[in-house]
Fold endo-polygalacturonase.
Amino acid sequence: MAKYLILLLLVSILGAATSTPSRSCNQVYSVIDYGAVGDGDTDDTQAFKDAWKDVCKSSSCSPIIQVPGGKTFLLQPLTFNGECKPGQIIFQVDGTITAPSDPNDWNCHGNKYCKQWITFDEVANLVIRGSGTVDGRGSTWWERHSSCKGHKHKDKRVCGKKPTGLTISHSQNVHLEGLTFKDSPQMHVAFDRAEWVYASNLTIQAPGDSPNTDGIHLQHAKNIFIDHSRIMTGDDCISIGDGSSQINISRIACGPGHGISIGSLGIDGENETVEDVHVSFVVFTETTNGARIKTWQGGKGFARNIVFENIRSEGARNPIIIDQYYCDHKHCTEHSSAVKISNIRYENIYGTSRRKPAVHIACSKAVPCTDILLNNIHLEAVDDDDDDGDEPSAFCSNVQGHAMGHVFPPLPCLS
Ligand SMILES: *[C@@H]1O[C@H](CO)[C@@H](O)[C@H](O)[C@H]1NC(C)=O
Ligand SMILES: *[C@@H]1O[C@H](CO)[C@@H](O)[C@H](O)[C@H]1NC(C)=O
Ligand SMILES: *[C@@H]1O[C@H](CO)[C@@H](O)[C@H](O)[C@H]1NC(C)=O
């Protein structure tokens, strides 16, 4: 009798397992089923909103929003709010998502500026993945931006803060994988007040002369992993802003662009902090900076516990740079306070540098940099036709620390 009961139990468990369709966990919600057209012209914003609304209500354990390949979906600025579902949501993007090409066609809900294009806010357990492209069509913004300086009747929308491509804010446990981001009006991807974000296998691409088109920007971001990505932009490949900590960046091809930057920190006397950053296996190709830390005069706070290692420079200018006199306009004066920079390690950095000095460490007179370590550095000048000569140089001031192993060019201020 007992045997029979166990058999019965077994049969019913197996029966339940096989009769539950496996797709119930990954129920698919295609934006097409919500009326998206995907011809690149029709506004598909509402379809995306409706699909998200249903996914939010879904009882499926890990539902998938599908943006199918072979189509182009035009989206106005929109926010996906994640305060809806405790489980995982998968955003599968294989098609192209595109923004309106003319800044005046952007629907910014009555706001003077469009600060963000696509936003995921307050999400937890989100996976955004696929082979698709997110195209911000920023070229018109950039062209008009060039006429902003000194012009009397400024185009308010274009001359103010331009929109970020994808923003992930107030969120945790987010994976971003495989996508291509291109031509954002401003920075391409921002993690703002986000934790446990894993970004990998991304391609980010904008012309080398496009203004402020950072690849990935971090702000108040913690436990962020950025891995195995190619970033070619007109500004920092990755910029690490105030309030960020526990950041791991590896296997990045950067360039054109302005390098991987911590800061700029401490603008207008602000107290800003960044700590525990690890950057490794990066190639900088023809970038204007490489491994960079920049702070403004007069700031407070710190940048500390930072490692840049296993880095190759292919003709970057200033492959290694700490600049505590950062200033992007004319009227900057020296102050008696500065963001404190300490415990910074540069290790195994080699290759070529386009312009002297290959190593530039300019620390504040009032608040010198401490515990700066350089170990195994070899940077040669790019062999080209200009008259600079072939000897790269190094500059440093107000630095306390050590040079170890082979360090070329030698740093006069480190023993
Ligand atoms: C990277 O993403 C592409 C799609 O963009 C995909 O085809 C490829 O398999 C991914 N590679 C890895 C290593 O995940
Ligand atoms: C950073 O990530 C890489 C690859 O994802 C890993 O190999 C490495 O151990 C991590 N480093 C730290 C300091 O967490
Ligand atoms: C700056 O902020 C950090 C972290 O929030 C804090 O620990 C520190 O005391 C602040 N420093 C000043 C001078 O306000």
